[in-house]
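We examine the record.
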Amino acid sequence: MAVTDRVKQILSWYSSENPGTLTNLVRLLNHGALAGTGKLVILPVDQGFEHGPVRSFAPNPESYDPDYFYQLAIDSGCNAYAAPLGSLEQPAAKFAGQVPLILKVNNSDTLAKVEPCSAITSSVEDALRIGACAIGYTIYPGSALRNQQYQDLREITLEAKRKGLVVVVWAYPRGTGMSKQGETAIDVTAYAATISAQLGAHIIKVKPPTAFIEQEEAKKVIEKYQIPVSTLTERIRYVVQSCFNGKRIVIFSGGEAKSTESVLGDIKELAAGGAFGSIMGRNAFQRSRTDALKLLADVMTVYKNA
């Protein structure tokens, strides 16, 4: 399809990138039910690696089969499907070219309670081989091992951009120096998103922030300048502003599975705050296929009408 004015505007924010990367960014923005709107709804399925199969797939046994996720992403009209190497690779030939792919190149498990740091589990070469248009990488701002993660991401980003891929960064603040409540605090979430942008991410994924403020110095500034953060819509707007004044694509996770009413309520606030979209895993695939398709269609309608 033709490139819309909105997509052209977004591409202008990435003018330093090569034609290959820009082409793959267009592939993401011009695919699915939200094609051309500048909005994204992505299906991510890294939970099998991150949380284990029973916690991830037992609620919907069909989802043990990697084919299931490809077909769900295609039939729902998602902009892309993101997963670790194994899940993407096993049925890649069967579904070649039917949905843009994001290869999650680092992952961690829950089998050891240590300072958060994901292992690099696949490569830019793997992404190219299976036909992915982007790589995804998780950082843990607040971890004692964060600097190593930033350095690894920098090297992977350099290679990905050189070879024409889009870079998507999952930014999950956590670590021994941060409170549990602080992991989704508004100041910390905005900081993590900013770090991702500074590291060269094209697309940034964070959790919807709460009104809690972790850092005392940040609290003083927020209060001094009366930055509005009381509602979710206001907090989303602030996180987006924190990423080059809205000149980076920022999308938000759906989190743990919850009621349809609760999901759609959050999505309406995200859209009102200027979110570029959502990345919805468990809230989609842990439902029956029929319910998942209905939910994803409703989510896309909210973004389309925002």
Summary: The chain is about 45% helix and 15% strand. The chain has one domain: 5-305. The first strand starts at residue 40 and ends at 44.
